[in-house]
Amino acid sequence: MIDKQRLAKEYGGMQKKELSRRDFLKAVGVAGIASGIFPLEAAAVKDGENQQQTVIQMRPFGKTGRFVSMLSLGGMFDTPSNQLLLRQALRWGVTYWDTADCYGGGRSEEGIGKYFSRYPEDRKKVFLVTKSDARDPEGMTRLLNGSLNRLKTTTIDLYFIHGIHSISEMDEQMRAWVEHRKSEGKIRLFGFSTHSNMESCMLGAARLGWIDGIMMTYNYRLMHTQEMKQAVDACQNAGIGLTAMKTQGGGQVRTNTETELQLAGRFLQKGFTDGQAKLKAVWENPSIASICSQMPNLTLLMTNVAAAMNRITISSGDMHLLEQYARETESAYCSGCVHICEPAIGGRIPIGEIMRCLMYSRSYGDRERAVTLYHKLGPHLQERIEKEDFSIVENHCPRRMPIGRLMKEALHEFA
Known about the structure:
Blueprint: H1 4-12, H2 21-35, E1 58-60, E2 67-69, E3 71-74, H3 80-91, E4 96-98, H4 107-118, E5 127-132, H5 137-151, E6 156-161, H6 172-184, E7 187-194, H7 198-208, E8 213-217, H8 226-238, E9 241-245, H9 258-270, H10 274-283, E10 288-294, H11 298-309, H12 316-328, H13 338-344, H14 351-362, H15 367-374, H16 381-387, H17 391-396, H18 403-413
Parallel strand pairs: 3-4, 3-10, 4-5, 5-6, 6-7, 7-8, 8-9, 9-10
Antiparallel strand pairs: 1-2
Helix pairs in contact: 1-9, 3-4, 4-5, 7-8, 9-12, 10-11, 14-15, 14-18
């Protein structure tokens, strides 16, 4: 069994500064998982005699009158093992389930539908969320009906328009469609998800007055910016329920800094990983109703549930260290402000979407998903990237990212 006290003493205090992050993770590695470093109060997520809390907490979803689990289950649900995952998630109180019509070509929704067919009584326990890529009423109706059929349900608790870039996409035609679908009982709540220009989309939604929920990129890198604080406050005042995604803050560039190692050691001393700490940092904000996390296996589900149940809070010192690390590595992380970079080159290159592909590949380790998304970005992309001069874009980037180099790397990485 790994000696956690020895690791915390040696690495938490940064006494071995020559040790890289990779060396540290290798040191705890599989042994860390086996010895229970990540489970925190692991008994809280197991059936035991002294359990004080058997399910994770619920939080109000804005002013909608609905309460949701503070952890949301996202991902693909198209295999037999995923059926067990859904069953166990429900037992631990992860009742907010997130999917989309485009995940796996509809197979993710079909997996949830298969579960509801087997356990129909569980449908009432789940806050079910799915998303549409369509923007026109006809397309939205077609995709919604397809989702209802695959999910084996008559209503969606929260229906998102997937991945908007501008609040202008939420027009009066869409509002009329939403009101009609609500009157039919096919959807209960409506909103959108956004990976780009999140703050302006959120501020716009707060002014509209008919958006119930938003899922946005939100993590320790973004939560302290003045723009994001204002956007969250505006949504809270408007009664909009907020779901945070991309909460690990993984970037497009792999980093290896002393602060990163110090973070891992500091949190290890407290009994949880830096990944769990990043979740807990987001939960510190009561305006965030839930964190949507892709949890493809029981190990990761248990890790995140344990973090949600654990009562140890993130201290001001921990938050300061996370902010320091975010500043040191800001050029490694795209914050999605494509309204700055893409117009600088006339919109010829979908920089934000390519950055998102790099994030999925390098931070999530999901190269298959990254390649699929990349090849949907339009014809002649390689030729356009090779011809483009990205120097003007880099001069505009507030995070000073090496955009030109990253675009070229994406060509080879996703070929």
